[in-house]
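Worked example

This section walks through a single chain of length 283. The input is the sequence exactly as stored; nothing has been trimmed or padded.
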Amino acid sequence: MDILKRAFVVMFLMFFGYAPVFAEDLKIDAGNGISWLPEHKHYHATGRVRIIRGEATSWSDQARAYYDDNPELISRIELEGHVRYLRGSLEIEGDFADIIPDSEDVLVTGKQPRLENGATVITASKSLQYQGKNQVVFARGDALLVDGLNKIAAQKMKGLLRLDEDSGKQVLSEAYFDGEVRGNDGSLNPESKLYIEGDRGLYHADEEWMRVCGNSRILRGADIMRGECAHYDLISENFRFLNEGTLETPLPPVILPSKNPKIPQEKPNPSEKRTRMILKTKN
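Given that input, the structure is written out below as tokens.
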């Protein structure tokens, strides 16, 4: 952003008296500059953009920060290109991201979105959604959870996080799976490896057990055992079939934001130093 445009933004905000009371700083740092497009109600930053809000930091090749009425109060952020979102020990990667700062809602899409949190890794083919305030993760399309040695795959997954009192970090508590569920016990010996399959599944991370319902199957080598619901202890390697049970946990449909039209941008001067701007978001 050149000097005249920056001065105009400052004068505009001061003249109309925009000063959010309940707001949190949103810091944007861009290598190739930041443009303000008032006719489209957003700022456009390019050049390995870094955005910081509270404990969360994101990186991307370019970013768009949208506002509703107040140019200083950002309501939504779009990230594009080599996206990384960091919050404590949690890291999310993808090609594109849509962020609602108020609710700490991060929707990541692209070739293969990936979430990593310590020994827990979640990937998907369609989208990953992290809801920070609700401590929930959604994976859609070929969802795969790797938790230590345990692996569980399904079409969709909902993971519940909790705050670990010892480390002070968010950790996986349990996960619900829907559609073509398949899990294993992490055994490194192919002959003794046990697989559990079903239409729906539940994985309890703290106690390390898994349960599936709906055409459930236990597979070990050439042996196949069938039942309505199956319970498998991943520590003791004991399993049992249940006569009845349910794992109905609806996964809400993902709501993809309406994409704004690509707007031609002035090419920034690569020799300029990194541009910084501090805006606001609601708490």
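What to look for: The domain at 112-250 is CATH 2.60.450.10 (lipopolysaccharide transport protein A fold).
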